[in-house]
Amino acid sequence: MELHGKIHILPKPAKLLIGFFIVTLSFGYFTGLRFVNENTNSTTIGIEEHYLGNETDENAEIMKFKKSEKEIISMVHNHVISMSVIFLLLGVILLMTSLPTKLKKFLIVEPFISIILTFGGIWLMWSGILWLKYIVIVSGIMLTLTFTISSVFVLFQLFKKKN
Question: Are the C-beta atoms of residues 95 and 104 closer than 8 Å to each other?
Fold first, then answer.
């Protein structure tokens, strides 16, 4: 079954559903990013302190404690599952666009790699492999770029007329 370009011939209610889904999903995604920034200041030191604590830092403005194993497992589990579903749905919608095949493949596969690197990196960083905080930052940036680009492409494709 060929899905390429089918987004252009969907009935108006289906396009509205997809459009509002993408806008609402984006609102939730970027609110989550704001939460990450509030907790980590989007820095490697902030990421490390958020998960490993800063109780030995006498100059810390806010005291943070190392997350328990239960908290880390729960956070990784919840984020990996929910983000996998988010990117599955976004990927299915991308399949219906008329974007070039190689670009679609990249936008569909990359988020799953970044999810594993980001949340696996957080878990391993918590376990003591501190240099993984850099992988967490890079993969998180890639995840956000891929989400943003995919969402913008889908919204533009919804308004593009069939060739």
Answer: yes
65, 52 contact by CB (below 8 A):
no
Reading the block at residue 111, the tokens are 């988020």
What is the predicted pLDDT for the residue at 82? Answer: 97
One DSSP character per residue, 111-129 reads HHHHHHHHHHHHHHHHTT-
Torsion of CA 146, 151, 152, 154, to 10 degrees: 120
Provide the β-strand partners of residue 65.
53
Can you read off the two tokens belonging to residue 79?
Answer: 């984020």
How much is the CA Rg of the chain, to the nearest whole Å?
A: 19
Count the Cβ atoms, other than its own, within 10 Å of residue 149: 14
Residue 46: how many other CB atoms lie within 10 Å: 18
pLDDT, averaged per 10 consecutive residues of the chain (163 residues), comes to 90 97 98 94 90 85 90 97 98 97 97 98 96 96 98 94 65
The conformational region for residue 110 under phi > 0 = left, psi -120 to 50 = alpha, else beta, is alpha
DSSP characters for 5-30? TGGGGS-HHHHHHHHHHHHHHHHHHH
What is the DSSP secondary structure assignment for residue 65, as one 8-state letter? B
**What angle, 0 to 180 degrees and rounded to 10, lies between the N-to-C axes of helices 12-40 and 132-159?**
160
